[in-house]
Amino acid sequence: MEVQIVTPDKTIFSGKADLVVVPGSDGQIGILDNHAPLVSSMQKGQVKVRQGNDDQFFDIEGGVVEVLKNQVIVLAS
Amino acid sequence: MANLKEIRTRITSVEGTMQITSAMKMVSASKLKRAQNAIVQMRPFAEKFNEILSNVSSTLESTDHALMQNKEVKKVLLVALVSNRGLCGGFNSAVIKRIKNVIAENPDINYAILPVGKKAIDAFKNSNNISESQHFAEINPTIWDDLNYQKAIPLAESLIGSFVSGEYDQITIVYNSFKNAAVQDLKEEQFLPLLTSNKKAKSASIDYIFEPGREEIVVDLIPNSLKIKLYEAMLDSFASEHGARMTAMHKATDNAIEMKKELTLFYNKARQAAITNEILEIVAGAEALGG
Q1: Please, which pLDDT band fits residue B202 given cuts at 50, 70 and 90?
Q2: What CATH homologous superfamily does A2-76 map to?
Q3: Fewest CB within 10 A of the end CB: N or C in chain B?
């Protein structure tokens, strides 16, 4: 699936990933391929992006995430 | 005929000014480029954000959020977004003039001004409209140095705070929006209460899962959307400032070139006249000797 992590200042990540874990307001949310459409607000925490065996972490202050048709868009602030 | 030496000094001084203005133009051009980049970077974020927000809120009936309540407008806060430095044409004076007009036109409304940028602070220093709200104690002009989203947040939060506490019934931002490097559009934008958009989202039919819930997300998103709105206005103003300065400095450089040309012509004429005079004297002297 395609993942984009965008802040108002710049796009900090854009590319394919196998797994994304975001800090949702009610707890961590793991997103895999073909996830159902989802909108969730996020709290302060880390976004984990897994590509193969490679994990990348991004610190965010909160924001919102949208999952639609294998597209994950993380709007971080 | 003016003194040759005098003209020479003037030419040198015009040359000096020209160098300064053209250097300032170049600096502004590169800053403008950066400011435009920031706007371009910001756009996808803002678009996506507003899309999600309208998506989530489109099916929600309630608009009784504290930030959407229209109150009777008695106390209005005008936020003046201007620059810290001058030499940028009518950029600052346009905003300042507009604010003075607005205040003069509506004597029944109690206006307060929040100056953002040194030029507005200077301009409104002697007016008694400056906001004395505690909320803005921390806002200082360095907000324009290395402008980024993090710097817009405290300003947005204090604006929201002053609205929620009832200190102001309406908050309006007055700023220059960026059209192109030479043209700025003066804008007055209502910041609070939040205007509800009637645009229906086209993807509203998609069956989203909402976490934690629709209303919670909206409540969470609204303050953020205000921060984004403010940041957009600030970026716009920032780009406009550099565009305006670039244009102003371009004109100044052109004028200096023109002036230098005239002075050089004048100088050459004066020099020619001096030489002719000298030759005349020599010839006259030689004739007198030769008899």
Answers
A1: low
A2: F0F1 ATP synthase delta/epsilon subunit, N-terminal (2.60.15.10)
A3: C
